[in-house]
Specification:
single chain; about 260 residues; alpha/beta; Rossmann fold; seven-stranded parallel sheet; 8 helices; about 45% helix; globular
């Protein structure tokens, strides 16, 4: 029986690269995205041409009703959920000094990036617990956080806090679910070429040129997808609660 993977925010950028890679790996794919299907039809056509079986669900990760509907539609269409990739996330609409950050901006970023992650994971984990073990595990949950979970950016503090929260969610769910056969991992992208980073491309171009990153190039969504692919398979069966930096070595402290 083919396995099914949910990818939130799977219509573009890192999420789309993950959805496409897992589809190539043989998973049936469920994409949750806030935009209409028509908006991303060109990308969906690419998946269809590659023979990837997918379901597109339009919804808001910050909405409990939409989270429940996502899981229900996935199970109705494919019979179960074997992998959840919590990728959906947003940056602040405006970068402002930490002392000027508004509660409205904080709530928006936290509701999507962290709260949505937590409660969707809760829903999907309960579904996985209804399913039989497949080999040595019952399911896999992969959180896409960021180097910002541990790197300070004082002009987008709410984003850093939201990603640090995802790191703790990885630890908590890994602890809670290990005995149940559900493994939980985290991938921390660094500077990845996406819509989110396009607004500050000049800044990162300069940092790369100055040698800030040991691997001196931009990361790609496909770089992140490769790490997710490895974790979603059966090659990491004796590890949980860990993270992989996909950041060109940016995390290395150097003198």
């Amino acid at each position: 029986m083919k396995k099914t993977a949910i990818v939130t925010g799977g219509s573009r950028g890192i999420g789309y690269a993950i959805a496409r890679r897992l589809g190539r790996d043989g998973f049936q794919i469920v994409i949750l995205a806030s935009g209409s299907r028509e908006r991303y039809q060109d990308k969906l056509n690419e998946m269809e041409r590659e023979g990837i079986d997918y379901l597109y669900v339009q919804g808001d990760i910050a909405s409990q009703a939409d989270r429940l509907r996502l899981a229900e539609e996935a199970v109705k269409r494919f019979g179960g959920i074997h992998v959840l990739v919590n990728n959906a996330g947003v940056a602040p609409k405006e970068r402002v000094d930490l002392l000027d950050m508004t509660e409205e901006s904080f709530d928006r970023v936290m509701n999507i990036n962290t709260k949505g992650n937590l409660f969707l994971t809760q829903i999907v984990a309960k579904q996985m617990l209804k399913q039989p073990w497949e080999g040595k595990k019952r399911g896999t949950i992969i959180n896409i956080s960021s180097c910002s979970s541990v790197v300070s950016s004082v002009n987008r503090g709410e984003y850093c806090v939201s990603k640090a929260g995802i790191s703790m969610l990885t630890t908590l769910f890994a602890d809670r679910l290990a005995a149940e056969g559900i493994l939980v991992h985290e991938v921390r992208p660094g500077v990845i070429m996406t819509d989110m980073t396009s607004a500050v491309q000049e800044k990162y171009d300069r940092l790369i040129a100055e040698g800030e990153f040991p691997i001196a190039r931009w990361g790609t969504p496909e770089d992140v997808a490769g790490a997710v692919s490895a974790l979603a398979g059966d090659d990491f069966l004796y590890t949980t609660g860990n993270y992989i930096d996909v950041d060109g070595g940016f995390h290395i402290r150097r003198l």
